Amino acid sequence: MSEFPKSPLMGQMMNQPLLISSIIKHADRYYGSNEIVSRRVEGDIHRYTYRDCHKRSRQMANALASLGVKMGDRVATLAWNGYRHLELYYAISGSGAVMHTINPRLHPEQIAYIANHAEDQYLFFDLTFLPLVEAFAAHCKTVKGFIMMCDRDRMPAETKIPNLQCYEDLVASNSDQYEWPLFDENSASSLCYTSGTTGNPKGALYSHRSTVLHSYASAMPDALNVSARDSVLPVVPMFHVNAWGLPYSVPLTGAKMVFPGPALDGKSLFDLFEQEKVTFSAGVPTVWLGLLTYVGQNNLQFSSFKRTVIGGSACPPAMMKTFREKYNVEVVHAWGMTEMSPLGTTGTLQSHHLGLPPEQQTAVLEKQGHAIFGVDMKIVGDDGKELPWDGKTYGNLLVRGPWIISSYFKNEGGDVLEDGWFPTGDVATIDPDGYMQITDRSKDVIKSGGEWIGTIDLENIAMAHPLVQQAACIGVFHPKWDERPLLVVVKKPGAEVTKEELIQFYDGKIAKWWTPDDVTFVDALPIGATGKVLKNRIREQFKEYKLPTA
């Protein structure tokens, strides 16, 4: 940490550290009877309160101490969104250890690499992942034991996993008499690995201070806008960037929390939304696509669902329009990264936008949004010089702030900052009002005849076609122009559409030279562990693709 000069006159406020344990203490003390509802891996619905959660978190903190877990030790989880996982969020970090969430959608070899790199001491996992843990457990060099998050009667009679223990046994055998320790708020609190970087996954190591500040900021009205009047269902997994901070910001505000467990299909989500009167949710576009398909096919309507935050990848405008116009659900476009804890911007209107025609308001809302307080951003050219905020000039997007990493865990990749700013790898514009719009990832931009073509606009237009389910656009080799756009399309079930019809669909919507040269149809697009379309896989699949010649 760099030292800043001190004023000759310092403030006379209490110096109370910003610690994650203070959030669950607050939820217990002031919202103790409010509900946490979980659809369990076992299939049933579990209900209890913030007071119950705090009690069991304290019992688990005592259990961790009995296992020899010390301050700074990494403790891993491999689990769905549920009440036990929430207890670990507070028990591990609150006791001074480091919560390391692992994405179970990764390959066993990747999981073993991450666990070894983090030097995890223990690993907690949902019973769903028993076969997965059996596949990599022997390769985890530092893990002293594995804890299965289930009741005693669900424990396997035989297993290859060394030192396997039962979660509920640990809770039951430990007292709830536990005082959360006080320590430096800059201490490490949680560790998330990102696959968005080159080479092996790299760790983003958050602090208690950064997490609490992020929780405050993300709950604000022009951010996630969470309040005690909400019933919140985080679709975004708790193993992905701490579920965008919702396990902290929801208890901080006292809102009801609803966990979907592993059932993320359209029917399961809709049923839980209706049963628990969910008002707000957050997730990536691929999950919402499944929900909207189910609701549309069954002519259903939401009775309580009023607001969703969509991020992780660009939300197609057609999806926003369907949510708003057909189901009266407000869509807030959000942007961030694992390296940013993750929230950076959200797309909401300001007062001077309210008198604009609806189509102009929509154009504002379709951008990735306005920086929330705590995040500063700028766009620069390849020469590093800052570019104007005119909504047209695009450049490399850089960010800085108190919940943005200064380096990766164990200094992997060396010094990642550029003159104190973190390079996001995104190409973007910023308009005069400060609204940022991603035009592409720098690695996905199509370079055609010395000019850049952003693929996100091309994908959004394709997905506005009524017969298109999903679309991805990549650059493929062209002998004259170096690269030209190829549109890869998944048609809606039972739909028939030709490439000529899709290419014609672009007429009048973009510059003529941006129009894809060709369209190819596939049964499915490759989806990564965080729900994003894997452009690198598509590029590899079509690297030998020959565009039609004029």
Question: What would you note in describing this structure?
Answer:
This protein is 27% helix and 25% strand. A hairpin with a 4-residue loop joins strand 19 and strand 20 (435-441). It has 2 domains: 21-430, 3-Layer(aba) Sandwich (Rossmann fold); 445-541, ANL, C-terminal domain (GMP Synthetase, Chain A, domain 3, 2-Layer Sandwich), CATH 3.30.300. The protein has a 13-stranded mixed β-sheet, sandwiched between helices. A 7-stranded mixed β-sheet has the order 7-6-5-3-4-8-9, with helices on both faces. Strands 23-24-25 form a 3-stranded mixed β-sheet, with helices on both faces. The model has no long low-confidence stretch (mean pLDDT 94). Helix 1 packs parallel to helix 9 (246-253), helix 4 packs across helix 5 (130-136) and helix 7 (208-218) packs across helix 9. The relative contact order is 0.08.
What features would you highlight for this structure?
single chain, 550 residues, alpha/beta, Rossmann fold, GMP Synthetase, Chain A, domain 3, 2 domains, 13-stranded mixed β-sheet, 7-stranded mixed β-sheet, 16 helices, 27% helix
Strand order of the largest sheet: 2-1-11-10-12-13-14-15-16-20-19-18-17
CATH fold descriptor of the largest domain: Rossmann fold
Oligomer: single chain
CATH superfamily of the largest domain: ANL, N-terminal domain
